[in-house]
Amino acid sequence: MKLLLLFSQQIGLLAFLGCLACSTSSSTSDATPLQQIDQVEAFSLLGTELRTIPDSEATFRKKDSLLAIARSNFDNSPSLEHAIWFGRRTAYLSHYQEAIDIFSQAMEKYPDSPELYRHRGHRYISIRKFDEAISDLQRAVTLAEGRPIEIEQDGLPNKLNIPLSSLQFNIWYHLALAQYLQADFAEAATSWEQCMKVSTNPDLLCATTDWLYMTYRRLGREAEAAQLLEGILPDMEIIENNAYHNRLLMYKGMKQPEDLLDFANPDAEERIKIVTQGYGVGNWFLYNGDQAKAFEIFKQVTQSGYWSAFGYIAAEAEVFHLQNHSIN
User: Fewer Cβ in 10 A, N or C end of the chain?
Assistant: First the structure.
């Protein structure tokens, strides 16, 4: 159910974490004018500050009002569901450290919740703590074992407002991604293969196929990579993962690399897609022998500002490895 009640953003987020143990009432006297907080949330693999990502005023107000609702719900009833949404809504405003704190506190009351480990693992990826992410997501795999497929509601719905992913998909997807970002391609391949089993619609199939394809290519398993593309068609009904679909069509030779890159596009939504597509294009050049071109594209992606996007993190990891290690 969509709630339309709007609240003003309140300070003192951490004061509400104690609500997991007991419920307290909040006061509107703490309300401050709506404003976007500019603060350092993490450091990149290259050592640069990663600051809160600004939204448009309209987007910020919507996210902020939904966070206020989630905070109020949690304050009045600190259930597992309310704790999860409190953390998720906090993360949507780029406050990843605070979101991790919320999930961590919730684990003290709900230690066997795979959902909490799934979401905290995701946000550990956001702040570049891949070891911690892998640990959390492996724990989530164990805790979710034997449970039926459970669709996750979207905090930022797609254009049709149709939730596409499940708890099980998101656990395997984020685990595989964290392993991939550490260049542990063998482990990542195993996790992507598990993720394929729960990729139950064209959007999820495209996302998982893309990452598994890239992983196989990095492992030199070219025949298996090519086989993955057989089920990818240009007329697939894609709701939100168009960037992954475009990358796959490029791998099949149905699109050219330059078709996927327009870093000067002023539309914010399209530029985010280009960050995702850009990583795939750069990676394509990398394992096809043009390291200089790959490095150039990866650097362009890391100059986009969308540092929480998975394509950005992956490009950042490639720049780090290219500068400091040999690349397979």
Answer: N
Give dist(CA 57, CA 77) in Å, integer: 30
DSSP conformation class of 13? G
Which residue, chain included where needed, has tokens 């009045």? 76
Closest CA to 327 of 119, 185, 221, 187: 185
Please state, in angstroms and rounded to a whole number, the distance separating the CA atoms of residues 298 and 289: 15
What angle is formed at CA 209 by the lines to CA 180 and CA 296, rounded to 5 degrees? 55
> CB-based contacts of 279: which residues, under 8 Å, 6+ apart?
298, 301, 310, 311, 312, 314, 315, 318
Distance CA 298, CA 169 (A): 27
d(CA 288, CA 219): 13
Note the pLDDT of residue 146: 95
Distance of CA 312 to the CA centre of its chain: 10
Residue 58 and residue 36 in contact, taking contact as beta carbons nearer than 8 Å: no
Dihedral through CA 80, CA 146, CA 161, CA 100, nearest 10? 40
% pLDDT > 90, the chain: 75
Q: Which tokens hold the place of 328?
A: 């397979």
Residue 77 CA from chain centroid, whole number: 28
16: confidence class by pLDDT, cuts 50, 70, 90: very low
Q: How is residue 51 annotated by DSSP? A: E
- pLDDT band of 156, cuts 50, 70, 90: confident
Phi and psi at 42, nearest 5°, equal -170, 180
Give the span between the Cα atoms of 27 and 179, in whole angstroms: 43
Report the b/e string of 94-130 with b at 16+ CB within 10 A. Answer: bbbbbbbbbbebbbeeeeebbbbbbbbbbbbbbbbbb
